[in-house]
Design goal:
Blueprint (H helix, E strand, L loop, with lengths): L11 E6 L10 H10 L4 E8 L23 H11 L3 E7 L2 E3 H6 L14 E2 L10 E3 L12 H11 L4 E4 L10 H11 L14 H20 L5 E4 L7 H5 L4 E4 L17 H9 L9 E5 L13 H13 L3 E7 L8 H21 L3 E2 L3 E5 L3 H11 L5 E5 L5 H4 L4 E4 L7 H12 L3 E5 L3 H4 L3 H4 L6 E2 L3 E8 L15 E6 L2 E2 L7 E7 L25 E8 L2 E6 L3 H8 L2 H15 L5 E2 L6 E8 L2 E8 L12 E9 L4 E8 L6 E6 L2 E9 L2 E10 L2
Parallel strand pairs: 1-2, 1-11, 2-3, 3-7, 7-8, 8-9, 9-10, 10-11, 13-14, 13-15, 15-16, 16-23
Antiparallel strand pairs: 4-6, 5-6, 12-25, 17-20, 18-19, 18-21, 21-22, 22-23, 24-27, 25-26, 26-31, 27-30, 28-31, 29-30
Helix pairs in contact: 1-2, 4-6, 9-10, 11-16
């Protein structure tokens, strides 16, 4: 059997973002030994672009002024890595270059509307040349510099892979961009970037990367190329057209300020998006050690850092550590310990996770808007096992892999996708659709079970959702709470006769400026209406749960338990007895489950507490249950990473477990065997 390509195997990547002034401190043997001790098996090393880390002979390729004269630093690092069976990925960044090159080749650079170049760090102190942005469609990033540099490196060094940093399109109004835009779209390049054709940036990136990829493959077909992808407004098929592997960068930017830090689920969702690619290597999740590039010389709080990193392997990706410098120049030694700790944890789980497949019964259709963010927050913090899928990836075959599909507010449904969703429901699938506007609901109105006369309300406040009817599964855990908070827009609509109303609107009892003044007038004047907020309609063999209000916004903005519990209840009601995994909601704990051969692999990541996390808060006696497949029984259960005690029972095909203590991250392995 042919050996697998190295980048298809379990990987732990460490990227040393080198500073040129530290070049003289670099000891190749020591650096690589410490990478090995931190359990890294791939090193991403600065090679070319803004600085050449070797004696390049390519004109206009700026050589690091601090390179030693007496030996080949890059070559020695590669040699030491290969002695220890560590792969080397060469990092290139052709997005910027030095001001003296601008003097020689001004046509290579990004221009604004006034033809001025884009200068980075012009107020930076010290004896530095200025850096200017290079145009993605011009010579520096293509045949004049990038192509010969790649050929030179491939001819000179035994590298294992190539990573292009900052390869993306940057807004440019140079004559080359104008001509290319006109050739493609037969119209002038607009002055306002909001008026650009939507695929223009992606097309420019694809064209540039296609040229560089062909250059690499013509020289060495065995060298893989790694490219970025994004969680928002990106097309994975465009990225994979010119790359062998993809990476994402869910940076934990604490320097944005407490109220603007990235949501707790960002690494998980980023990896879930990368894993939507079928028959493709696992994505890499790049985690920077710093709390922001402006604070790049110090580290994240350890608890926050460990929580952020743990999400990458727990969601099925390869970890990629991005650190500033190497061990001798990293002053914050917490970083070194954290990288080492998480890598050794990953080593315990990676053989089990190699080629494991996610076990998810719920699918969130991703629209890169705040509504999909809200649903991601709600599903993550209610421990619902879910995957995501962008609208360009929708097929009936893929939807049929899930019991429940969630369509967030303002999801752009094409006629083709609307038809696929109708077929999915008719054949027995269930959907949850959120919508407040007629236009977004019209493509699938016939399966929702409401009449066509839909009116969008004004923004409502001081209003409530009232549960309706006895034995209402949506009220589970909220039995003593007949009213839950409601705000935002609502679709005023009328249900069809065969549609069941599960919740209705209690309209505002007062304008916001009078809700507390005086309290003697706080009575609800209209305690009950027939305006539906949640309806259930059967269509074909499937079910449609319609939310005519902005539940995703309520979750995102207010994070109340009632709204999270409602999300869980909506999914649980549609899953019914088919639900595979269940546990009581614990805010801050993330769960992912996978299957491989006769193993179930259940990951728990602990992010309990106010972020940024200062301390890890252990959770004790974590109870959960898993429905076993028919004709199987449990052979053994163990905590793979932490070695924690697990008690369990099996009753009527349901496995009931209790994990004694969850610290940061653990993977529970359930090994089953067939009953004969």
């Amino acid at each position: 059997m042919k050996d697998r390509l190295w980048w298809h195997k379990p990987l732990r990547v460490i990227q040393t973002n080198l500073q040129v002034k530290d070049t003289g401190l670099m000891n190749p043997e020591k650096i690589v030994r410490e990478i090995d001790e931190m359990a890294g098996n791939v090193l991403v090393i600065n090679t070319g672009g803004i600085y050449a880390w070797y004696r390049s002979k390519v004109k206009y390729h700026h050589i690091n002024e601090y390179l030693p004269e007496d030996f080949d630093l890059l070559g020695e690092i590669i040699h030491e890595c290969h002695k220890r069976n560590i792969r080397v990925v060469a990092r290139f960044d052709f997005s910027k270059t030095h001001d003296y090159i601008f003097q020689q080749r001004p046509q290579w650079f990004v221009r604004d509307l006034n033809k001025k170049p884009r200068i980075y760090g012009k107020d930076r102190m010290g004896v530095w040349s200025l850096l200017l942005s290079t145009c993605i469609n011009e010579g520096y990033r293509n045949d004049e510099v990038a192509v010969p540099v790649l050929n030179e490196v491939l001819d000179t060094y035994d590298i294992d892979g190539i990573f292009f940093n900052a390869p993306h399109y940057e807004l440019c109004h140079c004559d080359t961009c104008k001509a290319k835009y006109y050739d493609i779209y037969k119209k002038p390049l607009p002055e306002n970037p909001d008026d650009f054709e939507r695929n223009w940036p992606s097309l420019c990136l694809k064209d540039n990367m296609d040229k560089l990829r062909k250059t690499v493959k013509a020289k060495r077909a065995d060298v893989p190329i790694i490219l970025y992808y994004g969680l928002y407004n990106d097309n994975l098929y465009d990225r994979t057209a010119t790359a062998d592997m993809i990476c994402t960068e869910p940076q934990d930017v604490l320097s944005l300020g407490w109220d603007r830090i990235p949501p707790s689920w960002r690494p998980t969702l980023s990896i879930k998006m990368g894993r939507t690619l079928e028959n493709y290597p696992k994505p890499y999740g790049i985690v920077h050690s710093c709390p922001g590039m402006d604070w790049r010389h110090t580290g994240l709080p350890t608890a926050e850092y460990m929580f952020w990193m743990s999400q990458i392997p727990a969601s099925g990706g390869h970890i990629w550590h991005s650190i500033t410098g190497f061990n001798d120049t990293i002053s914050d030694k917490r970083i070194i310990k954290s990288v080492s700790d998480i890598n050794h944890m990953i080593k315990k789980s990676e053989d089990y996770m190699d080629n494991a497949k996610p076990v998810s019964q719920t699918l969130l259709l991703w629209n890169s808007q705040q509504s999909s963010d809200g649903w991601a927050e709600g599903l993550t913090n209610t421990q619902v096992l879910f995957d995501i899928l962008d609208n360009y990836q929708i097929t009936l075959e893929r939807l049929k892999n899930y019991k429940v599909v969630i369509i967030p507010e303002n999801f752009d449904l094409s006629d083709d996708n609307a038809g696929i969703i109708k077929d999915y429901v008719e054949e027995g699938g269930s959907i949850i659709i959120e919508g407040t506007k007629k236009d977004s609901l019209l493509p699938i109105l016939d399966i929702i079970g409401i009449e066509i006369d839909i009116v969008t309300s004004e923004y409502l406040a001081a209003s409530y959702l009232r549960f309706e009817g006895g034995d209402n599964q949506l009220q589970k855990g909220l039995e003593n709470t007949p009213l839950i908070p409601h705000r935002g827009m609502t679709a005023y609509c009328k249900p069809n006769d065969d549609t069941r109303v599960l919740a209705t609107l209690v309209p505002p009892f007062a304008p916001l400026d009078a809700v507390g003044a005086p309290p003697e007038r706080a009575s609800i004047l209209t305690p009950r209406t027939d305006l539906p907020l949640i309806t259930l309609h059967e269509y074909g063999s499937g079910k449609v749960l319609f939310l005519s209000f902005q539940l995703s916004m309520l979750i995102r903005e207010y994070k109340l338990n009632e709204h999270h519990q409602l999300v869980k209840n909506c999914v649980d009601m549609l899953l019914g007895r088919d639900r595979i995994f269940n546990m009581n909601r614990i805010n801050g704990i993330q769960v992912n489950m996978y299957k491989k051969d006769n193993y179930l692999l259940i990951h728990f990541v602990n992010g309990i507490g106010q972020r940024p996390l200062v301390n890890n808060i252990p959770y004790h006696n974590l109870d959960f249950s898993v429905r076993l497949e028919e004709n199987t029984r449990v052979k053994r259960i163990f905590s793979c990473i932490a070695g924690e005690k697990i008690e369990y029972t099996v009753e009527e095909g349901q496995l009931n477990c209790a994990l004694n203590t969850l610290n940061v991250w653990d993977m529970v392995v359930v090994e089953t065997e067939e009953i004969r």
